[in-house]
From TrEMBL:
GO cellular component: ribonucleoprotein complex; ribosome
Record keywords, A-Z: Ribonucleoprotein, Ribosomal protein, Zinc
Gene Ontology BP term (one): translation
InterPro entries named among the record's database cross-references: Ribosomal_uS14 (IPR001209), Ribosomal_uS14_CS (IPR018271), RIbosomal_uS14_euk_arc (IPR039744), Ribosomal_uS14_sf (IPR043140)
GO MF annotation: an example: zinc ion binding
Protein name per the record: 30S ribosomal protein S14
Gene: rps14P
């Protein structure tokens, strides 16, 4: 059976910073996981997200 269905999915979200594909957000045109997004957001001045 096809167990590896999501092998190379087109919409696979991979963090462009650390390469992890967990909870990756596509915000500000960036693919960042929640961890990296926090760092980048704080760098950019987005203290809205925590
Ligand atoms: Zn990351």
């Amino acid at each position: 059976m096809t167990n590896k269905k999501r092998d190379k999915k087109k919409g696979a979200n991979i963090c462009s910073r650390c390469g992890s594909r967990g909870a990756v957000f596509q915000r500000l045109g960036l693919n960042l996981c929640r961890r990296c997004f926090r760092e980048v957001a704080s760098e950019m001045g987005f203290k809205k997200y925590r």
